[in-house]
Records
---
Amino acid sequence: MMERLFTCISCQRDVVDYPNRNGRDRAIEPLCKYCEGSYGERLPQSGAFMDRRIAGQISALANVLHTRAMSIEWSGRYGKA
């Protein structure tokens, strides 16, 4: 049965998935799979260990923070569109 697992910090969507899913298709808090793939540098290939997935997620988190900081700086300089 699918459950609400967590809220993605980037897109603010609720992640609804099977709680006992394992492997590369599992959503790992705090980013959903979409944001992890969109902001990450490169997704680990199939057969990669979980530490590579975590390293990719850290990279995606850094890119999310950078994007948010640039958005705040832009709106501070030029106003909101």
Note: The radius of gyration is 15 Å.
---
Amino acid sequence: MKKSTMNREMAEVLRRIRRSTKVLPIASSTPRASEARLAEMTEPMLTAANLPVPLLNQYRWFVRELARMYRTLYGRELEFVLSKSLEKWQSFGLEPNTLQFLASTTYLKLQAQATSKAR
């Protein structure tokens, strides 16, 4: 398998995650609620892409995995698991830039929500 490089935005998100000492606000959610929250963020993008249903479902499973990671991990552990997850889903044939876009966008949105609530 050819290993792809991280795009600039994803590399920056991984750096932020590595330095983070706080859990995301999704951590206090139930598994179902956290999955629904990320699905709400990503479903419009995924359905607009007009992907075949089997491929669309693979991206949805990736988003569910993101929800589990964001809910249970933070800091260096989240950075490591997220990078391995990106590699795993890429090996299943998903497009690396799309995976990185979904991961970085959802993380940044959750972080922004946490920041706005803290103010």
Note: The chain has one domain: 24-109.
---
Amino acid sequence: MKARFAMGLAALALVGVGAARADDYALKKELQGQYGKLAGAILRKDFQAVRQMVTPDASWKLLDGKKRDLKQMEGVYRRRVAALKPGIQFTVSISRMTPQGKEEQVECTHVFAGFKTDGKGKTHHLFEGSAWRDLWTKTAHGWKLKRSEQVNQRQSVDGKPVTTPVLPST
């Protein structure tokens, strides 16, 4: 009898874990969709759409340690997109999520890549990969980005690592 009871408890625990994993997967899928919409809006320079995906007090902290608000980040992204030719890639991939009540801490990777022509007319491939720590908050209008902090950054030109930034960050 005790063995059956223990097996029943174990089965219930597994069902609970399975449900939690399904919920985690659904949330990750939802937030990954939000990142896709956000990246697309930035590439289209549709900052009205971006404003609808972030909280009014959203902030970004880049590697220089300075905080930026949405208006400042609009300028950064406008300059980045303008620096590259059409065919720009900007993707965000979630690597880890940590629930914090009605907020979700997300560790993710940004990839920003495209082509740029130098002063001599030669075209170069530019690539930037960076890690970010974001905080999303659940609102009545869905998940919104509240805070984003850049953790690291790697850039390359024509496949060769560079130490001097090649894409605008200010």
Note: Residues 8-20 have pLDDT under 50 and may be disordered.
---
Amino acid sequence: MVDILKNQVSERHAMYKDEEGITVSGIVLSGSREHNAGLVAMAKDANGVIVDADCYYNLLKEDSVNPFYLKLNDPARILKVDTYIVDEMTLKSELKLEGSGSYISKGKLQINGIVANGTTLEQETGLISMGYDENNRLVDISSTKSVKMKPLSVHKLLNNLDETGKVKKVNTIIYGVPCKTAVLGQAVNKNNSIVSYKACLQNGAGDQDFTVHVMVYNSKGQLQTVKPQTVSVKKYGAVTFTTNFSARNVSKVLVKFFDASQNQIKNPTGTDLVYSVR
């Protein structure tokens, strides 16, 4: 008779808290086979919102004892920590965001996301994070560079947002899964006389070059400048497009996106107008 328990991954861990964060340390026991496995830790606040996330995932030798050390930030907000084992034998056969958290670090909003590739193929993926203010208005957006994930693997990916004083809620998704070409979101912020514009462009099937037209109109309503820019995006990839312009003597700014066939991609707001003086 086969002892099933000997084939199972198990773990033992302890946690301690200091001013810098919560440390989760322990061991993962591989069982009687060599395979990829590890542990995920999710720190949550009083409302059950994930504050931070970390993971350990590695190739475990047969009958081995594997130490791990995880660090969870922003301890003042953390009420509890959930942990669970991840094992290549139990991963769902998909590319999936297990969870993500956000906290302020060095003047930026740091986002940590745990991504699992449960497929038998190498996958390219990354994070797209969108920050919303108290009125649920999108005020910041950012995408990471793509990373290659091996089959049946788990990784922590990092992203950040700049508008720490305005962002009250963060929504993070992954790219790299089949999708349609779209502008996922756009954020406009004014600091003194400088206006910053960000948009996340997600590509569907097939690598292609996109063209972005930034059209600036002066105070008399006359088209002042058109700045066409080329943005290259891989299949199922994403890129954050950013531009800054002076608000002096400007009445409005329009931004238009075109795919490789010069078909316009609609902005999520339904209008090309991204800034205007009322």
Note: Confidence is low (pLDDT under 50) at residues 1-5.
